[in-house]
Amino acid sequence: MSRMCTVSRSRTLSGTLLLAAALSLAAAAVRADTRLLSARVVTPDRLALRFSAPLERTDPANFRFTTAQAPDVPIAVTAVRRAEGDRVMLTLGQKLSGSEHYRLEIADPPISRDVRPSTWALLVTVLLSSALINNFVFTRYLGLCIFFGVSKKRDTSLGMGATFTMVMVFTAMVSWAIDSFVLRLLHLSFLQILVFIGTVAFVVQFLDTMLRKTHPGLHRRFGIYLMLITTNCIILAVPLLNAQGSAGPLESFALALGSGGGFALALFLMSCARERMELARVPAPFRGLPIAFALTGLFALAFMGFSGLDFFR
C-alpha cells in the first residue's frame, strides 16, 4: 500500500514538473513570438505601441528610448499604460517631435525598433521648412542675382517663380535618378557637380527654346536672367543637398518643390514691395538697388520669425 502511494506521489510530482516545464516553454514561445507591429509618436510626450501578443512586462525599466542622433542618452520613460487589445502607451520625460527619428529597445522580449516619422509628416516638414524656415533667399542669401533682376514687376516675378519652380523640380528629380542609379553604382560621386550643372543646362536650354517659340513676350521680359538659372546657386544646391543627405525620391521632390516655392514667394513679395516703392518718396542715394537691399533685409528679419517652428506639436 505504501509502495503504491509512493509511486502515485512520484507520478503526481513528475506530472507537475512536466506541466510547469510545458507552461514555461509555452510562455517562452509566446515571448519569442511577440513582435512589435507599430510604434507611433503621439505628441507631445507619448509613444503608442502595438504588439502581436499581450506584453508581460509593462514596467518603465523594460523600455529604453533614445533619439537617433544621440543613442547613448536615453529619454526617461515615466509611465507605461496598457491600452485596448495589445496596445501599450508610453509616457516620456520630454516632448517629442513627430518629424524626428527615434530608437526603441525592449528588454523582455528582446525587441529593437527604429521609430521613424510617417511619410506625410516628413514630406510636409521638408516642404514647409525649405519654403519658410530655410528660405534660400531670406535665410541663406542665395540666388540674389535673379532675385534683384526680375523682382521689379509683379507679372515678371510670377512668371519667373513658376518657371524656376518647374526647372527646380525637374532637375532635382533627374539629378537624383542619375546620382542614385549611375554615379553611386559606378563610384563616380566626385562628378556630381559637373553632372548636375550639365543636367540644369540641358533643362534650361530646352526651356529657353520653348519659351522663345511659344511665349516670346515672356521670354523677352526674362532676358538674360533665364540663362542665369543654369549657374544659379539655389538650383544647384538642391541636388547637392539631396545627394549629401542620401534623400529618397519623395524627400528630393519635397525639397525641390519647397525651395522653388520659397523662391517664388520671395520674388512675389519683393515685386509687390518694389512696385509700391516706386510711388514713395525715396531719397536719391537710396533709389534703385540700395532700397531693394534694405527691403530684402526687412523681409529676412520677418522670415526669422519662422525659426524653430514645429509643424507637428
How many individual β-strands?
A: 8
The portion of residues forming beta strands comes to 5-15%
Weakly predicted, low-confidence segments:
1-5, 25-32
Trace the largest sheet across and list its strands. 1-2-6-5
Largest sheet features: 4 strands, antiparallel
How does this model look, in words?
The chain is an alpha+beta fold and 313 residues long. It has 2 domains: 33-117, Immunoglobulin-like (Sandwich), CATH 2.60.40.1220; 120-306, no CATH class. It contains 9 helices and 8 strands. The strands form 2 sheets. The chain has a 4-stranded antiparallel β-sheet with strand order 1-2-6-5, with no helix packed on it. A 4-stranded antiparallel β-sheet has the order 4-3-7-8, with no helix packed on it. A hairpin with a 4-residue loop joins strand 5 and strand 6. The protein is elongated. The termini are far apart.
Q: Topology of this structure?
A:
Elements (H helix, E strand, L loop, with lengths): L1 H32 L2 E7 L3 E6 L11 E5 L6 E2 L1 E6 L4 E6 L9 E5 L4 E5 L3 H15 L10 H7 L3 H30 L8 H23 L1 H7 L10 H12 L4 H29 L11 H15 L10
Antiparallel strand pairs: 1-2, 2-6, 3-4, 3-7, 5-6, 7-8
Pick out its properties:
alpha+beta, disordered N terminus, 313 residues, 4-stranded antiparallel beta sheet, 2 domains, Immunoglobulin-like, 9 helices
Summarize the structure.
The chain is 54% helix and 13% strand. It is an alpha+beta fold.
